[in-house]
Specification:
The complex is a heterodimer of chains A (479) and B (417). Chain A has a domain at 2-160 and 169-246 and 253-342: Methylamine Dehydrogenase, Chain H (7 Propeller). Chain A is 11% helix and 35% strand. Chain A has helices spanning 8-12, 156-160, 164-172, 377-386, 441-448, 454-462, 470-478; strands at 18-23, 28-33, 39-44, 49-53, 58-63, 70-75, 81-86, 90-95, 100-106, 111-116, 123-128, 134-137, 144-147, 175-180, 186-191, 195-200, 206-211, 217-222, 228-233, 238-242, 260-264, 273-278, 284-289, 294-299, 305-311, 316-321, 328-332, 338-342, 426-430, 433-436. The relative contact order of chain A is 0.14. Residues 437-479 of chain A have low confidence and may be disordered. Chain B has one domain: YVTN repeat-like/Quinoprotein amine dehydrogenase (Methylamine Dehydrogenase, Chain H). In chain B, 6% of the residues lie in helices and 39% in strands. In chain B, the strands form seven sheets. A four-stranded antiparallel sheet of chain B has the order 1-28-27-26. In chain B, strands 2-3-4-5 form a four-stranded antiparallel sheet, with no helix packed on it. A four-stranded antiparallel sheet of chain B has the order 6-7-8-9, with no helix packed on it. In chain B, a hairpin with a 4-residue loop joins β26 (343-349) and β27 (354-359). The longest helix of chain B has 8 residues, at 21-28. The chains are: A mainly beta (479), B mainly beta (417). At the A-B interface, β5 of A face β17 and β21 of B.
């Protein structure tokens, strides 16, 4: 509704420009915007999941169910369900209409990443630490788990000539990330040896494999339209790929080889990249750097030229781009705060009075013939009323865009139980040292809470500098 | 007494009804019976259309003037607030009194329903905004503190997460409803703010003030996007977005209600509605819908095909209630002597076909559209009526005598404190 009134130059911007706000609630470890862009989910080091309302920057929901580091978040297509994966070896599906846990699935290992099927919110894939990836159906309360292959698909010749060494190497492969293709018909997975596999969702068979790099792939992200993919890997190179339409009837997986479209790397400093992300249009790639407080923005459509560097107050471990606005939410490594970048709205001076017009240079005023004529009030009033014969329609709604608030779509109920967030606040008392703002009763409960992989959550809640994040941890373990 | 409605303790003498002769004659013309049986005869703009809202309930209980009255979005309840500092909740179907909320230290000037019909926000002359849980009958524990003068207007965003408030301290505040925390202050006006409203998608806010300005704001950035001023600079006391959000309707103290096209720059007045009296008090009203067929006699074979037309209802300082057609500015109905004294507020709910009004006499009145007449049965699609009316439509022995019954139902429930 506001778009017709806003300056077109403001709307044309597709990258954020300035740090605008900061959200604090515990130590955030992963964040994700929902599809409509009105909520931001944040998984915390202590296992709680906070849902921020992007309209108010306030807390809309607090989901308590995990008791260790939350690793990944995924919203269902209608934004009603949220899938969270944690280092407590479980994945939880939340129903946000009630804020209750709908399903809880336990695994044999910490979960790297869990992602929902694009259309079916009761089906998800997950990649685990030192275990095989799984396709999990939670239609029934008792989850049905299917193991997905990790070993790359080889041609007949390769199988015939396979050496023992190669077989041993294949057996050591571990899947580090799994995501669904845009239609959900296929699963894309990648391994710690740099292989990219396409797996059929229905049969769980590997259809195609491509060796992309020799080091571990840590992250795969698709654009909103599903036509491009970006992969971050341990060799400090970000690669982008164009994905063909795999659902086309004449598409042949046997001949398919994924080809790199663009490579991004810092040749001089050899920076490693924490996290990568597309902007909504898929024209820009953003990546946060390890050991530096920057987010780099490259233009994919301009042959990968660097267009902007966003400076952060902290090292950014993870971030997410808003689904349709030039807005980025990012997590700082030191204290787990969420920083928000956006485009500052310019004040249009013409908006402040109806007869204001913005002009480039001074204009000589030409007086109209009747400009200062005195008209009788009744005459003026009558004339005005006579002009009001235009047909108007105050009822018909304009069709709304997907991204906007639609009447009838799922709306998360506004919960009025004000969440006391005092327990989460930490204050800096020196370089790298923090303490709780108000140590109280909950101080004890956190200390004595039994936690499976508790060092992470304890560190976070004690306020000392947390050792790491999902990305670095994953590397330490698998390398 | 509620200061923001500028109501003095001594009643001002009722204003003489002054309307143009043409409107008078129009208003008193007998219900026309078009001779033709063509289905679209009613759609002709030349045919005078009249609505027939009849008194359904009189809700008694407030000890002082009723400053605002609103039907809940689901149509189940009616909320009213008064200069006596209370908010009362009534059942819209039966007229039963359900709750009385007390807690404000001064007269309550304005109330707003949350979109889920569960909460009510109230703003009062004690500078405090409070929330009340209507289903549980309990107050919200945290008041919204921050305004430094009387609260004059409130509006919930369509998602229910933001509350906008306008005050005599000349500012518009946006509140995070969940945390009772102020998220933004709009440097809105240079005189008391009279009204605020959200568009149906929540992206825009409109505010108006006694300084004669109407301003449109971007909810997410807090930027002023448009300013509308009428040449006469009459104080603007209340403002509403049209149901589709493309126009704003503004009540001004020159006895006019104007519909503005704000998308154009500069904003342009497209319609002016006149007839009522409004020179001193902040009077509010709202949009509603009706079908032109409602007022017409139809043959058996006619089908309900026409899109609903927009109506607009407003109170008046002479105690009457006015309903206009939004498109052609014609008066659809005038209810004379609706209240004894100023009619401060009116609200409409098209699903229930009810109009409610609150006046200086401390009464809330519910008006129901008269659709019992046999000849008018065909005018509604069946799914648009509640069960009771469907039953009546199917009952061949029903001769419309129940309307008198409805008339007789007058709830005389004294205030139980």
């Amino acid at each position: 509704m506001n778009l017709s009134l806003v300056e077109p130059e403001y709307l044309a911007k597709d990258l954020p420009e300035a740090l605008q706000d900061c959200l604090k609630s515990g130590f955030s470890t992963c964040i994700r915007f929902n599809h409509r862009g009105d909520f931001l989910a944040s998984g915390r080091g202590d296992g709680n999941v906070i849902i921020f309302d992007c309209d108010t920057n306030g807390i809309a929901r607090k989901l308590s169910g995990h008791f260790a580091h939350v690793q990944s978040l995924c919203w269902s297509a209608d934004d009603r369900y949220l899938l969270t994966a944690s280092q407590d070896w479980s994945v939880v599906l939340w129903d946000l209409s009630t804020g209750e846990r709908m399903r809880r699935v336990r695994f044999e290992a910490p979960i790297f990443l869990a992602e929902l099927h694009p259309t079916n919110h009761l089906l998800f894939v997950c990649a685990q630490f030192d275990e095989q990836p799984m396709l999990v159906d939670v239609q029934e309360p008792e989850a049905v788990k299917r193991v997905l292959p990790t070993i790359p698909k080889r041609s007949e010749d390769e199988i015939a000539n396979a050496t023992e060494k190669q077989a041993a190497q294949d057996a050591k492969q571990n899947t580090t990330a799994t995501i669904f293709s845009p239609t959900g018909d296929f699963i894309f997975s990648c391994t710690n040896k740099g292989w990219f596999n396409i797996i059929d969702t229905a049969t769980c068979q590997t259809l195609s494999s491509t060796k992309i790099t020799s080091s571990m792939i840590t992250l795969m992200r698709l654009t909103a339209n599903g036509k491009s993919m970006v992969i971050n890997s341990g060799d400090r190179i970000i690669r982008t790929f164009e994905l063909p339409d795999m659902t086309a009837p004449d598409f042949n997986f046997d001949n398919f080889q994924l080809e790199v479209r663009q490579k991004y790397q810092d040749v001089i400093n050899k920076l490693s990249w924490h996290w990568v992300c597309w902007n909504p249009s898929g024209e820009h790639i953003l990546a946060s750097t390890m050991m530096h407080h920057n987010i780099y923005c490259w233009a994919e459509h301009l042959e990968g030229s660097l267009v902007k560097i966003l400076e952060a107050p902290d090292e950014i471990t993870s971030f997410d781009f808003h689904p349709y606005k030039p807005r980025v939410a990012a997590i700082g490594q030191d204290d787990g705060q969420i920083y928000l970048w956006g485009v500052p709205a310019p004040q249009s001076w013409a908006a402040l009075a109806p007869d204001f017009v913005e002009v480039e240079e001074n204009v000589e005023h030409a007086e109209r013939e009747d400009e200062f004529d005195i008209q009788p009030a009744e005459e003026l009033q009558r004339r005005r009323l006579d002009l009001e014969d235009e047909e108007i329609d105050v009822l018909t709604m304009d069709p709304v865009k997907d991204s906007q608030f639609q009447p009838g779509a799922f709306v998360m109920p506004v919960s009025m139980d004000v969440i006391s967030d005092v327990e989460d606040e930490v204050v800096a008392i020196g370089a790298g040292q923090f303490r709780r703002k108000t140590p109280g009763q909950d101080w004890l409960t956190v200390e004595t809470e039994p936690a499976l992989s508790g060092d992470e959550s304890k560190k976070a809640s004690n306020g000392t500098r947390s050792a790491g994040n999902g990305g670095t941890k994953r590397k330490q373990r698998t390398d | 007494m509620s200061g923001s409605r500028q109501l003095s303790a001594s009643q001002s003498p009722r204003r003489a009804i002054s309307r143009s002769p043409s409107r008078l004659s129009f208003q008193h013309s007998p219900s026309p019976l078009p001779a033709s049986h063509e289905p679209f005869a009613a759609a002709n703009d030349e045919t005078p259309v009249q609505l027939d809202y009849k008194p359904q309930f009189t809700l008694r209980g407030h000890k002082k003037a009723v400053s605002d009255v609103k039907i809940s979005p689901d149509g189940a309840r009616i909320a009213s607030c008064s200069a006596d500092g209370t908010i009362k909740i009534w059942n819209a179907q039966t007229g039963q009194h359900e709750h009385t909320f007390e807690g404000h230290l001064a007269g309550v000037s304005v109330i707003a329903w949350s979109p889920d019909s569960r909460w009510i926000a109230s703003g009062a002359d004690d500078k405090v905004i409070r929330l009340w849980d209507v289903t549980m009958g309990k107050p919200h524990p945290y008041p919204f503190l921050g305004h430094s003068n009387y609260i004059s207007s409130l509006a919930f965003s369509p998602k229910g997460n933001i509350l906008a408030s306008g005050s005599h301290d000349e500012a518009v505040f946006l509140w995070d409803v969940r945390a009772a925390r102020r998220i933004r202050s709009l440097p809105a006006h240079s005189d008391p703010v009279g009204g605020v409203d959200f568009t149906h998608d929540g992206t825009l806010i409109v505010s108006c003030s006694s300084d004669g300005l109407i301003r449109i704001w971007d909810t997410s950035t807090g930027q002023c996007l448009r300013t509308i001023i009428h040449e006469d600079h009459a104080p603007v006391m209340s403002v509403k977005f049209s149901p589709n959000g493309k126009y704003v309707l503004a009540w001004t103290l020159d006895s006019s209600i104007r519909l503005w096209n704000y998308v154009e720059h500069p904003g342009r007045c497209v319609k002016t509605y006149q007839g009522h009296t409004n020179k001193k008090f902040g009077i509010t009203g709202t949009f509603g819908t009706y079908s032109r067929y409602e007022a017409m006699y139809q043959t058996e074979n006619d089908k309900y095909t026409e899109k609903p037309s927009a109506l607009m209802v407003s109170g008046s300082e002479d105690g009457s209630l006015w309903i206009w057609d939004v498109g052609n500015k014609k008066i659809l109905q005038t209810i004379e002597n609706a209240h004894d004294g100023v009619v401060f507020a009116a609200d409409a709910h098209h699903k229930a076909r009810q109009v409610v009004s609150g006046g200086a006499d401390g009464l809330v009145k519910v008006w129901k559209h008269n659709i019992q007449t046999a000849d008018r049965r065909q005018v509604f699609p069946k799914d648009d009526l509640d069960d009771e009316h469907q039953a009546r439509m199917q009952d061949p022995t029903d001769d419309g005598s129940r309307m008198e019954l409805d008339d007789a139902v007058v709830v005389k429930r004294e205030d139980l404190q």
